[in-house]
Amino acid sequence: MLTIHDVLETNQMIQKHNLDVRTITMGISLLDCCSSDGKTLCRNIYDKITSYGEHLVATGEDIAREYGVPIINKRVAVTPISLVAGASDLKDYVEVAKTMDRAAKEIGIDFIGGFSALVERGFTDGDRRLIDSIAESLACTELVCSSVAVGSTKAGINMDAVAEMGHVFKKLSELTKEQDALGCAKLVVFSNAVEDNPFMAGAFHGVTQGDCCVSVGVSGPGVVKRALENVKGEPFDVVAETIKKTAFKITRVGQLVAIEASKRLNVPFGIIDLSLAPTPAVGDSVADILEEMGLESCGASGTTAALALLNDAVKKGGLMASSRVGGLSGAFIPVSEDKGMLEAVGRGSLSLEKLEAMTCVCSVGLDMIAIPGDTSAATISAIIADEASIGMINNKTTAVRVIPVPGKSVGDTVEFGGLLGYCPIINVNKYKSDAFIARGGRIPAPMRSLTN
Amino acid sequence: MKVVITVVGMDRTGIIAAVSQIMAENEVNILTINQVILDGIFNMAMIVDMEKATIDLEQLQKLLKEKGNVLGVEIRAQNQKIFDAMHQVG
């Protein structure tokens, strides 16, 4: 029997501690849009997205109103465009990106992901055309997000792609320098990319998926932080149990919203992504949770252990609350989107090297980190290589979304606004990796890829 | 549909009467009412059944919000399923 305390607890989570459903993401396969004629291809893509996604936003808003829980973003993820456009006569895919942008605006969603290529083992001609189009495409569109998978545990790391992506980040930064390189916030490079991730910028609808599905990404760092305030000084067993119970409750809300959205849109339910996704709002920070465990500032020794416990407990708590779990599932550490992380960077306690260590134990990787504008393409590629190798060896997803901000250096701050927040420029090791990146080729798949 | 109505704010006379009146006028059946004072703040949770209601949830939310503004309290109406999902297993 529901008690008044249960009711009040739920509403306090929503109203005071920023519990929300971060995203409802509709995955749409575009495989049946292929055409040798570029114009036909774009028309097919536009028609399919706008017809399948027509009611997504209104449905999300209806559910949010009925249940009294905010649903922050409504998004669409599509089949990697390199696969969809590969057979077309298009010389580049900028027109496809513009088509996606138009379709996204037509249905009123916040972002559309899938301007993507999967090149872990090598490039097709379509992959190359896509990667060559990324910078211009993201610079001339608003809602399109792009991702490139450069490595995996099974495939190793495509170092030619890694080298190329350093240049793409630099070019995109230059093309969007009037907005402090905001374009780079819409681009992510993956190792062990997942096909059912509902979060941007890395969402795409994998080819193993059905025609269409809806997935939900939950959130709620503030709720976990609040729960831990009640167990100050208690041993870590108690901390882990508290996080698990809280994650269970958060995820049950996500599951409810996902099932409801699936039913109302008449589309199969995909997955729940058990994530703690911070926002720049006060009290909605993963760093605050780590500090609540007893660290003076995020980045202090012990931060990686604290994050490991948090990440694991979120999964254990959330797993039983949902019928199907997938995506990235874990704690995100996007620096510019987390007030606690920003403050930690600002006071010099959180470095790029510590963030890299943290990515070994959390859900993704180096995320939304502003770096000096004069960071070379080779250094960015080397950062990607480091991160991809962590993913490859540890059999987990890792990613890089860094923003080289033209004209800015350590000590400066860049303002992105909205959910993307602001960010102090973080220091990057000044020694060069040019000769390392210039080698190209493949880093072979590790021993642990041989599991059969 | 079962709906949970919550009222949070400073205690004063007539809150339950005012909310109940809206229910009666729109054929919304009250199933349970609970109230508690926490940290000096008045909290009420009312579970209602809207099966025979003459208005839908969105209209009820609007009426309650307007009444809440008059009374100086916050009134929310939410589908009960969100609370059941979070607090009840099975």
UniProtKB/TrEMBL annotation, chain A:
NCBIfam families: PRK05313.1. It comes from Megasphaera cerevisiae DSM 20462. Transmembrane segments: none annotated. This is UPF0210 protein AB840_09610. HAMAP family: UPF0210. Homodimer. It comes from the Bacteria. CDD domains: RNR_PFL_like_DUF711 (cd08025).
Automatic annotation (TrEMBL), chain B:
Pfam families: ACT_6. SUPFAM superfamilies: ACT-like. Signal peptide: none annotated. InterPro entries: ACT-like_dom_sf (IPR045865), ACT_dom (IPR002912), UPF0237/GcvR_regulator (IPR050990), UPF0237_ACT (IPR022986). Residues 4-78 form the ACT domain. Belongs to the UPF0237 family. This is UPF0237 protein AB840_09605. It comes from Megasphaera cerevisiae DSM 20462. The lineage of its organism: Bacteria, Bacillati, Bacillota, Negativicutes, Veillonellales.
